[in-house]
Each structure stands twice: as structure tokens, then as C-alpha cells.
């Protein structure tokens, strides 16, 4: 019987510099998100659903990294974690991969690992998020990696250390954004220019069936799905213990509709859950929502 590979990615490495707008501190505490979500009680719950092995990886504290070496460190540590994940997957032991971060920049490692592992298959990325995370270094308002981690997979990238580790690509037609995204000019331009598919709450309220069919069509077009789930896709009054809560985020029903459409494809192999910050006020509900998402994937129904 195959197992699930769980990964705890302890990381705030995606935020070295002062954020652009909103937060006045770089989301201190998000590096403890994986411990808060995958706590002993929840691991026992998972054990009743599936056998699992657990990998833990600790990224550098960005406060201790020289600014001149920041992207080199991000690249080296991202590649190291990706190699650990790919090596584990190569054993043939696992039928599912679930990584819990950490800031969203950690997803670069899991996506890199999955694309390498399935190098001969068409991998689709479904991104539940309130942000695009597709800046170039040259267009990023802050220079923080968590706002640009996806771009190197989709396009040529303008930072050599990051560019050099991305040896696999993700065509833009294999990327689907789900969420009420707050995007900046370059991100909006890139999404429109490359006709990247998006689903918003307006789409859901207008025609739920059409949304489900759009997700099904996307899933039908690929062989394997990696789902990256930023907890800030939920609206702020549901999820507040995260770096940049979205007052206009999705409600639980919207997320469930979209998640179940993905799960119904039977093609979901791997996922990330990121940006849970247990050091924020009242983190219990945010942690609970992250755990519900993970259980939904394990039970194939949210």
C-alpha cells in the first residue's frame, strides 16, 4: 500500500525586505505555520486516513542572510528541498505529496520537484490565491521572492541564481488561478498577455456550473495536477492569521466548489498549503481551515 509524503517547510525566506504596502513587518511567525498545521493531534488524524512519511526542511532565517547573497541562498535552499522531495518520490513509495509552509515561496521547491518527477507528463498547476506571485525581480515592488516564485516556471527570469535552478518549465496554458486576486501592473499584464485562465467569485456567483466545467476542462487537458493553496484565498473574516488577509476573498462554499471540481478529476497528485501564521491574533480558525483543506484532499471531498 502506497503512502503519502508529508513535508514541513519551515520558512520565511520569501520575505527578506520590507513588504510593499499593508504589513509593516515581514510576516514574522509564518515559518512556524507547518508545525501549527501538522501538529501531533492532526498527524494522528492523518494517520487514520493514510500511512505517511514526514520530511522536514528548515530554510535560513532571512534576517541573517546578507542582501547581496539573498537570491543565491533562496536558489540553493529551494533546489536542496526540491532534490529531497524528488529523491523520495523516485522511490515509488508515494501516491500523494502534501507540503505545508511557510511562506508561499516554498512552493517553488515542491513545484520544481513535481515537474522534475513527472518530466514526461503534462503537469497542470491550480493556484488558489489572492495574489499572482509572478513578478520579475525588475518589476517587484519589494524584491521579496514570495511575490515572484512562480514566474521562473512560466517565462524567462531576470535573476541568474533562481533562473539556473529552474530546469523544467510550465507552459502558461497549464496554469489556472482561482481567487479574487490583488495584482499589480506587471502581473496583470502577464496574465492578460498570456491568456492565463482565472476564476473569481464573480464567475462563481454568475454560473457555478460553468465554473465547475471550466475546472474540469482544465484538468482534462493535463495528466497530473499540482495544487498550491495560499490560505489567504479565503476572505479575511474567515482567515485572518496570514500575511496579507483579503477582505474580498472567497467564502468556504466557493473554495469547496472549486476544490471538489479539481478532486473530481482524480488527477491531483500533490499540493502545498502555505502562509498560515500562528503568531497572528486568533490563529485557531486559520489553522483549522488549513487542516480542513488537507483532510479534503486525503478524503477526496471538501
Structure notes:
With 302 residues, the chain is of the alpha/beta class. The chain has a single domain (3-299), classed as Arginase, Chain A. It is 37% helix and 16% strand. It has helices at residues 33-37, 40-47, 70-90, 107-117, 151-154, 160-165, 185-193, 201-206, 208-220, 252-263, 284-299, and strands at 3-10, 52-58, 94-100, 123-128, 175-178, 197-199, 224-230, 268-274. Strands 2-1-3-8-7-4-5-6 form an eight-stranded parallel β-sheet, sandwiched between helices. Helix 3 crosses helix 4 (107-117) and helix 9 (208-220) runs parallel beside helix 10. The longest helix is centred in the N-terminal third of the chain and has 21 residues, at 70-90. It starts with a strand and ends with a helix. The model has no long low-confidence stretch (mean pLDDT 96).
Strand order of the largest sheet: 2-1-3-8-7-4-5-6
CATH architecture: 3-Layer(aba) Sandwich
Low-pLDDT parts are: none
What number of structural domains do the residues give?
A: 1
Q: Total helix count? A: 11
CATH class: Alpha Beta
List the keywords.
37% helix; 11 helices; eight-stranded parallel sheet; Arginase, Chain A; alpha/beta; single chain; 302 residues; 8 strands
